[in-house]
Fold each of these.
Amino acid sequence: MSKNEPKLSEYRIKYNAGLEHSAIDNYHYYHAYTAEEAFQFHVEVMSKKHAEAQNISVERFNPYSSEWENETPENLK
């Protein structure tokens, strides 16, 4: 892998399964190149399951700080 190739990152999508603000938030985890790609994977999975949800955020795991960093795309905010 060269320095210019994009690197896969771990993303998690925070969503709420209830359309009227359920008490519990859930997460789906994806490996993707960008936050937008991870969100698109999430949309496809929810569509295939015929599930509706409130999407809250997209976070990327930073392996150097061991923390999740908000990378929510503009179309989700």
Note: The longest strand covers residues 54-62.
Amino acid sequence: MDLQLSAVLGAVFGSLAAACAFFISYHEYKNNWNFRGSAAMMALRSAGVAFAFFFLAALALGVVFQMVAAPDVR
């Protein structure tokens, strides 16, 4: 698997995960929690973590797939 393809897939699925994390977190922060601070900022932080996780996981899997698929040259 090409690393560029892994980066694109990581960006696409990371964006989807970030959007879901934002809406879920924002709803929970807005309705159920008593806290100081902005619900939107806390939800953005959750979205950033979700994006980073999925993007880095896709890159790591791309590297692993390249290592497995590469011929063993000695």
Note: The mean pLDDT is 90.
